[in-house]
Structure formats: C-alpha cells, structure tokens
Amino acid sequence: MEIWVKYALEYLNISLSVYQQEQFAVYEQLLLEWNEKFNLTAVRDIGGIRIKHFLDSLTCTKALGDLNGKNLADIGTGAGFPGIPLKILFPEMNLLLADATGKKVNFCQHVIQTLGLKNSRAIQARAEEMGLSKEHRERYDVVAARAVARLPILCEYLLPLVKIGGVMIAQKGETAADELAQSKKAIQILGGKNQSILSVSMPFFEDRRYLVLIQKASATPFNYPRRTGLPSQKPIL
Fold it and tell me: Tell me, what is one Gene Ontology molecular-function annotation carried by this entry (predicted)?
C-alpha cells in the first residue's frame, strides 16, 4: 500500500490520509474476494489493482480538480472505476455508479455500504435509457467513463447526461487523438464544445494514458440518445 500511495503523491500530487488509505485497503480486499466468485475485472493481482485501477482512476483529478460538492456519474463503471476511488478522495462529492451488469452493480452497492460512502448509489441501467430519463438527463456536472466504448459512441452515451456547463471525461489509451477526430460530428450534434486531450504518465504502463474532455455548451436534441444498441451499431460519424 505504501508504494502506490507514494506514486499518488509523485505522479498526481495527491496526498492520501490514513483513513483514505484504510478505505482503499478495504476496497482492495473486497475486490479480491469477489473476484474469486465473479469475473468483475481481469486485473486480479494486488499490484495491478493499485496501479491499473486505483491510481489510473485518480488521474482524472489532473483534468477535473476538486470534485467536492459536484455531481458525478460514472457510466459503465464495472467494479467502480473511476467513481469509487474519486469518491474516496472527494468525500463531499455526489456519486452515481451505473452499469448494465447486475453482479457488478451488486458489488458496487456492497462497497458503498461497507465503506460508508455517503451520497453515493449504484444502479443497473443502460446509458441510452438514462439519457432519456428525466431523473438523469442533463443532471450531472461530470460524467465519466473508462474503457466502455470508442469515443463517437461514448459521446452519445455521456453527453445527454451532462448539464450545460458541465463536462464529460473519457479515459483513453493511444487511440485518443484518432477517436476524438472521429467524434467531431457527434460532439457538435450532441451539444458538446471545446474538446481537449490531456496526457498523463503512469508507473509500469508501457502505453501513454490520456484524458479526453468535452464541455457541454448546449442542450442535447431530444431525439438523442437513440434507442438501446443503436449508438454502437451506427455511431454518429
């Protein structure tokens, strides 16, 4: 635990309190235990969890800054990344975790309850359905996703959920620039503006990691997102 905490300070200028370190330790143990029964994540070793999940999730702070008091939705969260690590770091943040797979949502609910994460919940839902719901449409300051889909598809998943003046953030690898170039039409149609890419360095990662940010400038047209499955089948290109 000490080594990755050191990396958080060295690479991200994040200083974790003793209590936050304890929360990450419990989260790590729960992930190891549940992975023995369910396929929550392909990363199963302690070192991989700490770097490829915890530290990688916290790289979002390089682009987003202090999230306390903000409403963040993590779409396709899986085992809670990047949402839960960000919530541990920013306890006054309001967190929604969403995933289409029930066992992953159950795990996230268990983590929330075990860690006592206030103003946090996990729901089983698809992004297309959320984007058409009054409860979720254009309600969030930040909407995040990690390893969910290519960016033209992801824009249709995330931008309808972002409030005007808010931002969507996608964690990407080496294809980030190409994906952003392919997303120009989708961004314009869906109300996005002012795209940017931020490179982040990580220990033990051979490939560079990137944060793609897209600001929400205007309301998403009511005919988006399209019905479930269509954004991935026929992306806006």
Answer: rRNA (guanine-N7-)-methyltransferase activity
The neighbouring-strand residues paired with 96 are 73, 121
230: in domain: no
Q: Binding site membership: which residues?
A: 76, 81, 99-101, 127-128, 146
Question: Structure pTM?
Answer: 0.96
Q: Which residues lie closer than 8 Å to 187 by C-beta, 6 or more apart?
A: 155, 159, 193, 195, 214
E strands present in the chain:
71-75, 94-99, 120-124, 140-146, 162-172, 192-200, 209-216
Q: Is 93 helix (H, G, I), strand (E, B) or coil?
A: coil
Q: Let me know if residue 232 belongs to a domain.
A: no
**Structural domains of the chain, count:** 1
- Grouping H, G, I as helix, E, B as strand and the rest as coil, residue 39 is coil
Encode pLDDT of 84-121 as tens digits.
999 999 999 999 999 999 999 999 999 999 999 999 99
The answer to whether 145 and 154 are in contact (CB under 8 A) is yes
Annotated binding site for S-adenosyl-L-methionine: which residue ranges?
Answer: 76, 81, 99-101, 127-128, 146
Give the chain's length: 237
Can you read off the two tokens belonging to residue 122? 């996990």
